[in-house]
Amino acid sequence: MKGKLIFGIAKSLLLARWRQTLVAAVGVTFSIAMFITLLSFMNGLNDLLDGLILNRTPHVRLYNEIKPNKNQPVNAALKDSYNFISSVKAGITRQEIYNSGPVLQTVKNDPRVLGVTPRLSTQVFFNEGTIDITGLINGIDVEQEMRLFNFGDYVTAGSAMDAENVANSIILGKGLAEILVADVGDVVQVTTAQGERFSLKVVGYFQSGIQEYDKVQCYASIATTQKLLGKPANYVTDIQVKLYDLDMAPAVAKEYAKVFNVDAEDIQTANAQFDTGSSIRTLISYAVGVTLLIVAGFGIFNILNMMIYEKMDSIAILKATGFSGGDVNRIFLVIALSIGFFGGAVGLVFGFIFSVIIDNIPFNTAALPTIKTYPINYSPIFYMIGGTFALITTYFAGYFPARKASRVDPVEIIRGK
Amino acid sequence: MPETILEARHINKSFHDPVTVQVLHDITFSVNKGEFVSVIGKSGCGKSTLLYILSTMDTDYNGELLIDQEVMTGRKDVELAAIRNEKIGFVFQFHYLLNEFTVLRNVMLPGLRLARYSAQEVEHRAMERLKMLGIDHLADKAAYRVSGGEKQRVAIARALINDPHIIMGDEPTGNLDMRNSEMVFEIFKELAEVHNQTLLIVTHDPGFAERSGRIIEMEDGRIIRM
């Protein structure tokens, strides 16, 4: 009953000054809309840039690092002394992962693992006339790579599966293909590090969006790569693991390193700089969004202050006829919060509309073959934060004017006439 | 023994800004139920100041104030607001209607705040009072669209909505012409005589005061006649 009365009075005061109210609400609407648009766009961009690297990066990578053995025999023999050993060589370390078949099987059966795929990479020279161009051939399980790391998205010409289906075939990086002037269907000459020469048929182009990368990287099936190296079918140098939960990567990496006696690198360690970049971009967009809201808050503060000066008489008589300071306080808070609520709600809708518009603006760049329009992240979290912030800012914008109104001394106003 | 509605005991008040001036000296009097009391005196004699203390809106005084035989002195703002709402009706020199509302709604507001009756009943009671004052045809008009004399009658209707123990007026006819002043006086007189309503009206219209039931005259912050 009392609440209804307070709402009724607040509503009448609001509607009596609907132009001012509208200006205040438009301020909130604008800032919330911009807040949502900015965050959606910024995060869309973040996701895109992260995806460029992170989607193609395994969450955990198992490999054998070429390095000297830590346990040198002399240390075992002379335990009590400090031994100086110079020029230690990584003599008998192999790049190959030992026992790769059972390791793959064990990892595959781990319930935390979404998928696992072997890989082996090798340095080669592409022979272009008299010039040798360095390249890196990645032997991959094409089907698994397509499933886990969106490999298919980045093959811009030809077909990814042909690498598996056509014998002695290769997918060239776009940049490398341009240097070699090799079209799909052409044959390129390759010299391996061991000095063997091979002819490989180009079945597609690969374009990652990172030019330096595309000038070096090529892909072939595991079998083809093993043939290049003259190695048996169980020879792999990397095992790539994709987990269900990315955040578990460091723990899983540590565990696998111990269990399989290999080196393991998690995605967080491998790509720390991307995380930093993303979080700073997000921080900046939040800062801008919050600043917009605070500016809108000052707008509401001003308008409420003006309203209170205008309505001094009304406040005085309300207090004289039995409305307490608290009631008056509540009336003005309700006014502020309804501006925040309605302005904010419309702002959320506009924010969504702007996001959709941006999402439909064409954005074609050679560097990003899979992107056709500007990226937008439609996370509902932004809308929740925006809505909450609209209410909080308007509450504080209304708090001080409302307190002032509640402290109006009716005697002073009435006697002043 | 008539029932005492309002009692002031040794009320003193000083203004401290810019220098301390005592405006009320040891005011002691009481008002019984059904009395029509006028407070008169020259400008600056403290009669309005006294009225605002009696109305509980001004709490900065020494002494004791009783309304309906209950002590008002030292109570909290919220309690005093509730007491004003329930037991006191106000008519000021200026009407103080809320322009955002209709005449009817203005009259209803204190009744809705009290919430003793449902909204429909409050509306019905508001209409009754408007009818009694002969302005029921204005009920749905916006408050700022009625004339000065009518506004003052709306303000009286608003003061009556909660059946207050006492109606306090601060120069209620001060802004009105002869005809409207006369009308307002007649309303007060009728309230006092027919409805046994207690009234305490501050005025400096001697004609008004003389025709009321009892006169309290003040000079320099003291009561010199009662």
From TrEMBL, chain A:
Signal peptide: none annotated. Residues 288-410 form the ABC3 transporter permease C-terminal domain. It is found in: Cell membrane. Residues 21-255 form the MacB-like periplasmic core domain. It is a multi-pass membrane protein. GO terms for biological process: lipoprotein localization to outer membrane. Keywords: Cell membrane, Membrane, Transmembrane, Transmembrane helix. GO terms for cellular component: plasma membrane protein complex. Belongs to the ABC-4 integral membrane protein family. LolC/E subfamily. This is ABC transporter permease.
Automatic annotation (TrEMBL), chain B:
Belongs to the ABC transporter superfamily. Macrolide exporter (TC 3.A.1.122) family. Residues 6-226 form the ABC transporter domain. It holds the Pfam family ABC_tran. CDD domains: ABC_MJ0796_LolCDE_FtsE (cd03255). Keywords: ATP-binding, Nucleotide-binding, Translocase, Transport. One of its GO terms (molecular function) is ATP binding. This is ABC transporter ATP-binding protein. GO terms for cellular component: membrane protein complex. It comes from the Bacteria.
